[in-house]
Amino acid sequence: MRGRPQRRPDPDLWTRRHSECASSDAGFTSMGEAMFVHTAHGGHGPKCLQFLSAAAYLDGRADPDEYV
User: Fold this and answer.
1) How far is Cα 67 from Cα 30, in angstroms, rounded to an integer?
2) For position 27, what pLDDT does the model report?
3) Residue 34: how many CB atoms within 10 A of its CB?
């Protein structure tokens, strides 16, 4: 069975799309992108909307069985 083609990670594109801490328009396309943004904005503090968006995306997509 064939699915849609996998996109390669593009850190340069992700850096450009997620450079503004004040922007809440995250629009993640993958877990990898969300993890990249979460790491890149991790030390920016509680007002960084990119970090908060990435954390929410990752939390919502997490597999509950992974933490058992």
Assistant:
1) 20
2) 83
3) 23
